[in-house]
Write a structure and sequence with these properties.
The protein has about 240 residues and is mainly α. The protein has 2 domains: about 10-60, no CATH class; about 70-240, no CATH class. It is built from 8 helices and no strands. It has helices at about 10-15, 20-35, 35-60, 75-95, 100-135, 140-150, 160-205, 215-240. Helix 4 runs parallel beside helix 7 and helix 5 runs antiparallel to helix 7. The radius of gyration is 28 Å and the shape is elongated. Mean pLDDT is about 80; it is low at about 1-15, about 20-25 and about 40-45.
Length: about 240
């Protein structure tokens, strides 16, 4: 199977033909020609390579910015807790002597960061669901439905009642999904805290305990998978509610 370019990275062949890169090569060659031909043969390729490196680096995707204060209070503590756990993990690894254990813990640290990003994405989706539920105004819809069913609201039409019932059912379903997601995220964030505590114990003993870095990495990998599954479920729920 052919290897595909990494997501978010511009293929090298495309970067090589960008105007910035071509111009850099031409300028380098021109400067060399002003001096002498052999120099042009060197400065041209060097300038071209430098332009290629700049163009490739400029198109590198920026790290995702995680801001707990852009989500509601019902979701914010999970993001803050995940960020704090990640910071503790980094401090723990910094205190480990160079060697195989530290290298393994650094590899696991990349998975911890993935878990933090997934926690953030779950919180954002949950916040968006809360917004959708608010927009549906379950309380107001329920009150209007009662008036329609009593024939006192001026909308004594069964089609209106059906529409209001559907709207109310959607609001209740989305609210239930969001509530369930919060409970699941609470458990997953607690698992992340537990994993960081295990890493701290392992680091303090410098590997001299019954704890296994491989098992720890496997647990964190499963945790990230569970977070991804939760986020995918929220994506589906949000799409269905639109």
């Amino acid at each position: 199977m052919a290897l595909q370019p990494l997501p978010g990275r511009r293929p090298l062949s495309r970067a090589a033909t960008s105007p910035l890169v071509v111009a850099a090569g031409a300028v380098g060659a021109g400067l060399g020609l002003l001096i002498e031909l052999p120099v042009a043969l060197v400065t041209g390729p060097l300038a071209y390579a430098a332009g290629l490196a700049v163009a490739h680096r400029r198109r590198r995707p920026r790290p995702e910015r995680i801001d707990p204060f852009t989500v509601g209070e019902r979701w914010r503590p999970f993001v803050q807790g995940a960020l704090q756990a990640s910071a503790r993990y980094r401090r723990t690894v910094e205190g480990v002597d160079p060697g195989p254990l530290r290298e393994r813990l650094e590899e696991i640290g990349a998975m911890v960061e993935s878990g933090v990003r997934e926690c953030w994405r779950v919180a954002r989706r949950g916040h968006q669901l809360d917004d959708a539920v608010s927009a549906l105004d379950a309380a107001g819809t329920r009150a209007r439905l009662a008036r329609v069913e009593e024939g006192t609201g001026g909308d004594a039409d069964e089609s209106v009642a059906r529409s209001l019932r559907a709207r109310l059912a959607t609001a209740e379903r989305l609210a239930g999904v969001a509530s369930d997601a919060r409970e699941r995220l609470r458990v997953l964030q607690a698992r992340l805290d537990e994993a960081v505590a295990r890493a701290t114990e392992l680091a303090l003993a410098q590997g001299g305990t019954g704890l296994d870095a491989g098992a720890l990495g496997g647990d964190i990998e499963h945790l990230v998978d569970d977070l991804e599954a939760l986020r995918a479920g929220l994506d589906e729920a949000e799409a269905a509610g639109q």
